[in-house]
Amino acid sequence: MLMKKRTFLAGAATALGLTAMATGAALAQDDMTKVGFIYVGPINDGGWSQHHHESALKMIEEIGADKVEMVYQENVPEGPDSERAMTQMALNGADIIFSTSFGYMDPTLNVASKFPDVKFEHATGYKTAPNMAAYSARFYEGRAVQGTIAGSMTKSNTIGYIASVPIPEVVRGINSAYIHAKKVNPDVEFKVIWLYTWMDPAKEADAARTLIEQGADVILQHTDSTAPLAAAQAAGDVIGFGQAGDMAEYAPSPRVSSIIDNWEPYYTSRVKAVMDGTWESHSVWEGINTGMVGIGEITEVVPEDVKAAALEMKDAIAAGEYHPFTGPLNKQDGTPWLAEGEVADDGTLAGMNFYVEGLDGEIPQ
Amino acid sequence: MDVSAINPVLLLASLMVAATAVLIAAVGELIVEKAGVLNLGVEGMMITGAICGFAAAVTTGSPTIGFIAAAAGGAGLSLLFALLTQFALANQVASGLALTLFGLGLSSLIGQGYVGIKPPPTPELDIPLLSDIPVLGPVLFSHDLVVYFGLALVAVVWAFLKFTRGGLILRAVGENHAAAHALGYKVVRIRVLAILFGGACAGLGGAYVSLVRVPQWTEGMTGGAGWIALALVVFASWKPWRVLLGAYLFGGVTVLQLNLQAAGIAVPAEYLSMSPYLITILVLVIMSADRSAAPASLGRSFHASQ
Fold first, then answer.
1. Residues B10-61: pLDDT tens digits?
2. Interface predicted TM-score (ipTM)
3. Which residues of chain B have a CB within 8 Å of the CB of A215?
4. Which among B1, B47, B23 is positioned nearest to B252, based on CA atoms?
5. Residue B239, domain member (yes or no)
6. B65, burial (CB in 10 Å: exposed 0-12, middle 13-18, buried 19+)
7. Of A78, A110, A137, which closes a domain?
8. Same domain membership, residue A126 and residue A6
9. Which of A309, B193, B266, B304 makes a 20 to 30 Å CA pair with A143?
10. Beta strands A33-38 and A239-244: pairing type?
11. pTM for this structure?
């Protein structure tokens, strides 16, 4: 509770600073499109929030700092407090507001109904309104590539997975990684730890250490800090992947590859749409094909044949020739889900709340 | 479910690591509260210590200097609290909360240039011979120096409070500052020293998170450990050994629940996640049934004219 206030003040101060700079540098403020961003973590977390922020800054560069003005607030807790933050932005004249975490979905919907003239864009959710669009990335495509590398690289056949919050996006990631690790290594086993947080370096480090102690030699993470990679490095002979950002400072090992979020093209096109008056609500889900999901460089620690297989899969997914959720696939309890050759539909994926066959444990509900 | 995957030796060893930061901060706060001062700024001092220690260790390449700088940083911040509450007679609760807000902000300001940097590794001791003993060796004798420092600190604080004249005076100041003043003890001076000690301990605890447990710098990385330390002091009835027990219990259940999750035990993860808080509070509340009271002057301002 205390952090919010501090960061809110800091955010407000920065926003004021930006405003002052922008107005000082350019034209009258009224001609500019005001874009708001709500971040769940600090803008230098090295992962999720940092990449939204960097994409936002690139968007401004792309469109021109004389035409767009940005305000943002970091460390906004998911839930009612985000509603206050967005209301504040809307009252201060934002034309479009991007709320960049799953937990902002209902708050965004509430604020959107109060400000029909302001456009809202919510990341990784599924609810929309006439003035609220949903956008998300098919991170599970990246997880398929990651699972292929992880399954081939593990010697102990045990892969640790640090899961954050039990929502469909995270469950999809676990399933996708597992399916593809299993494909290249039938003996592979997943150990999953749920942390109920997107970012808490101490908890992430403890979780990574626990998984390593229990025999995992590959750590996959869906949390945003580099702490698990630091733990992998300390343990030696354990590899991991960058999450949301490249985390290249841990390359070539333990970080052997990464999933990179690149939101810039989307942000640019949506802000331009607001400027042209062509903005319309939609629900989009982009993947490796449009570059929203990027695969970070696969380092030399990975053998050539594994790297080639991973890149082949990446290209097949990008070309639309391969879907990571292709049958035959059963649900965890053994009931059939997808028949041979059948591909999962987006509706099921969007609400995915079950493990595929072979995974142990339960998803917290 | 495969509980056999949990290695009890490694579990106990990581328990000690998980508990140390909270332990050191809590022991510091115990001395502060025993002197009759309630400093709610532990979280702020911890995070300030975390970044001061991190910055110093990265700049000089020496973890030792890092820890010294962390203690200095925490003590420096607590000096602000001491000035406000002991000389300006400000409300201690409000000043403590403000200190936390200030510490969080200050640390992210100092930390701007330190994101994504790796600190120099803190060496583990691996005491020869002793660390080779099966089971006991890895659990007890192969940690970094700070873990042992935490244990020694508990013993020293306990002995200080129980057996020394200084400890008696400190407790007298905390129980009845007017009487202590009448006896000629410098109440304000003693309290300022206690506050500085508490700040230094919180700073060390914070640096343990940023230099050993994680190790890296991220804004807000202590993640509420300071509040846990504060709660531990109260639930441990202001007794050093109970603080140790509480900290190890908290660290132990934290590590254990992660292990149980990874082993796939059939308890829902949400219950496991809340278990460290529940179990620690429960055990310490049951133990404090002997009604040990808080220091009588806790949180009250003192001025010689009153």
1. 888 888 888 999 999 999 999 999 999 999 999 999 999 999 999 999 999 9
2. 0.84
3. 5
4. B23
5. no
6. middle
7. A137
8. yes
9. B266
10. unpaired
11. 0.83
